[in-house]
TrEMBL record:
Domain HNH nuclease per the UniProt entry, residue ranges: 7-58
Pfam (any one): HNH
SMART domains in alphabetical order: HNHc (SM00507)
Protein name: HNH nuclease domain-containing protein
Coiled coil: none
InterPro entries in alphabetical order: HNH, HNH_nuc
Lineage: Bacteria, Pseudomonadati, Bacteroidota, Flavobacteriia, Flavobacteriales
TM helices/strands, residue ranges: none
Natural source organism: Flavobacterium cheonhonense
Taxonomic superkingdom: Bacteria
Length: 294
């Protein structure tokens, strides 16, 4: 005998089709595993069932306390992993990943539900209602309940500890300024306080400068610009939102899949600084006209 279809379905729903050990979304590449092996008297009941990806299932399936290499998953540890992950799914309303849902309609429904969640939990609706028409054209980030958010990978195991200074690549969690929403997700301002200079010519071609004191900033051929680097996270990469933060960081926490080459962004682009006092909005720089002047 094995688990009934009813028990398998319930475990898959409770785990949101994520592995209870590594927390990765695996779509259909999952097993419902016996925590206590049947050979040791384990029963086909939901209390003895856990959702595991193929890799973790391979490790758990060969558990032997006297194994000479590594520390395999014990039944007691598996039970704790199961309980901890089910709690995370409940509290953060984690949904099955898009890749486990077939069809464009399902993908669209997920996007719209997450969009509603962002607008409900991250927008300061009372403040928005009090502002004059057009205010947010020049002050996009003011619509949010917080100017900063914590972006957290669903696979991160470091939070709230900091990553080592010599760590290369994007860290699994970081604090950043939230900038705006767009048709497909949220936008983050990635380099506040350290944005790069750019020069642009009369035809709209522009170059991002390595040196903030580049001599060409004084040339009559170009206009100097301060830039903002903007990262776009699609709603489909957002898994859960913890709007009130936690005891370590009170800013909203946004849990994401770092699904694009280890990053949560589907696109990164640049804008020139505007001037709210003079009713000048930030202006997007045309990526097709990005160049290196000779």
């Amino acid at each position: 005998m094995s688990f009934s279809q009813k028990i398998k379905e319930e475990i898959l729903v409770l785990s949101a089709r994520h592995c209870c050990v590594c927390h990765k979304s695996k779509g259909v590449k999952l097993e419902v595993h016996h925590i206590i092996p049947k050979q040791q008297g384990g029963l086909d009941i939901i209390e003895n069932a856990i959702c595991l990806c193929f890799d973790c299932h391979a490790d758990a399936g060969h558990y032997f306390a006297g194994h000479p290499k590594g520390i395999k998953f014990s039944p007691n540890e598996l039970l704790k992993h199961k309980e901890a992950w089910f709690k995370i799914v409940r509290e953060h309303k984690i949904l099955p990943a898009i890749k486990s849902i077939t069809g464009n309609i399902s993908k669209l429904n997920y996007k719209l539900k997450m969009q509603q969640k962002v607008f409900k939990e991250l927008i300061d609706h009372e403040f928005v209602r009090k502002q004059e028409l057009g205010y947010f054209i020049y002050n996009t980030s003011h619509m949010f309940i917080s100017l900063k958010v914590i972006i957290r990978s669903v696979d991160d195991v470091m939070y709230p500890r900091f990553y080592p200074e010599d760590y290369t690549g994007i860290t699994g969690w970081f604090k950043v300024m939230i900038y705006n929403t767009y048709h497909n997700g949220i936008e983050l301002w990635l380099d506040p306080g350290q944005g790069r200079k750019a020069i642009i010519d009369k035809n709209g071609y522009w170059e991002l400068l390595e040196d903030r004191f580049d001599a060409r900033l004084q040339s009559s051929e170009y206009v100097g610009l301060d830039t903002k680097m903007i990262g776009q996270i699609p709603y489909n990469n957002i898994i859960a939102i913890e709007a009130r933060g936690d005891e370590y960081a009170s800013e909203p926490h946004i849990y994401c899949k770092f699904a694009n080459d280890g990053q949560p962004y589907e696109n990164i682009y640049y804008k020139s600084f505007g001037s709210p006092e003079n009713y000048i909005p930030d202006m997007e720089l045309d990526v097709e006209k990005m160049t290196v002047f000779g």
